[in-house]
Specification:
CATH topology of the largest domain: D-Maltodextrin-Binding Protein, domain 2
Order of helices and strands: EHEHEHEEEHEHEHHEHEHHHHEHEE
Number of domains: 2
CATH superfamily of the largest domain: Periplasmic binding protein-like II
Distance between the termini: 33 Å
Number of helices: 13
Shape: globular
Length: 284
């Protein structure tokens, strides 16, 4: 496997910039190729084997846990407000019964989480999936819209909708726990066949992340330029974002998966299993 190229995923939003900083600045070896796309496409590409390692929606991991393993200490998480996952709405959540809610095509975790919230509240909106980038047009055709990533950050949703509900904050108010939006996963079959290569990739990602947090000011500057927003907004965003996966986040992820199972969004209990060198560790 020494010379064979390996494709790994990279989210095309700014949210995983801390994890990829080192790889974007000299750490990337010749045998590693990064494939950048939105979360839903990365989900599909790891499922089909087009990429072997990738950040993916946490809910997608739960739905495909038999085929995937998690890489330790990597996630995209928040501990309260997150800014980049919002429900922009003309009504409060409890008043969206029978109302049209547009879901972004780009995320599985946020959509699953929102459906779980509605189910718990016994509210049944009418879901529609489609593009949500045009914030002015969408406000004319939907009662509420779920927006994620750069789209949530760069448009003034609060100017076109009466309510902007931060899902990270909502989860924290419900559980007093962080929320894990994305995790890094490896195809189980690839990890079993090439454990040493996966170990190398994991080590590179952790070193890349370490360099990212050492240069967070440059990441903030790049995000400011990309989204054309005030630097203070981007700094606040990265202050609220976490890229580790500690015990509290694993606990929160387990609670999320159990809630998805209770609501019938998952068809079976999702085991949380990590790749650890040449063996797998099962978290009960």
């Amino acid at each position: 496997m020494n010379d064979k190229q390996v494709n790994i995923g990279k989210i095309s939003y700014i949210n995983d910039a801390p994890v990829y900083y080192g790889l974007d600045h000299g750490l990337l070896p010749d045998w590693l190729r990064m494939v950048s796309d939105v979360p839903s496409v990365l989900n599909r590409k790891i499922k089909t084997g087009q990429i072997k390692v990738s950040p993916i929606s946490a809910a997608f991991y739960a739905m495909n846990h038999r085929e995937l393993l998690l890489l330790p200490d990597l996630s995209i998480s928040c501990n309260g407000k997150v800014l980049s996952v919002i429900l922009a709405s003309n009504y409060e959540i409890d008043d969206l019964e029978g109302k049209k809610v547009m879901l972004s095509q780009e995320s599985a975790s946020a959509a699953s989480f929102l459906k779980m919230i509605f189910s718990r509240k016994k509210v049944t909106p009418v879901y529609e999936v489609g593009p949500v980038n045009n914030y002015q047009e969408i406000s004319k055709s939907a009662d509420a819209v779920l927006v994620i990533g750069d789209t949530a950050l760069k448009h003034p949703w609060d100017q076109t909708f009466e309510y902007c509900i931060d899902l990270g904050q909502l989860w924290y108010e419900m559980t007093q726990l962080p929320f894990v939006f994305a995790v890094w996963a490896v195809r189980r079959s690839f990890a079993q066949k090439y454990p040493s290569r996966v170990k190398e990739i994991h080590k590179l990602l952790l070193e890349s992340k370490k360099q990212g947090y050492q240069h967070i000011d440059k990441i903030v500057e790049a995000g400011t330029d990309k989204l054309n927003l005030e630097q203070s907004v981007i700094k606040e965003y990265f202050d609220l974002l976490y890229c580790d996966l500690d015990d509290r986040k694993i606990k929160a992820m387990r609670l999320f998966f159990d809630s998805l199972l209770d609501q019938g969004i998952l068809s079976e209990k999702a085991d949380i299993e990590f790749f650890t060198g040449s063996r797998m560790e099962h978290i009960f």
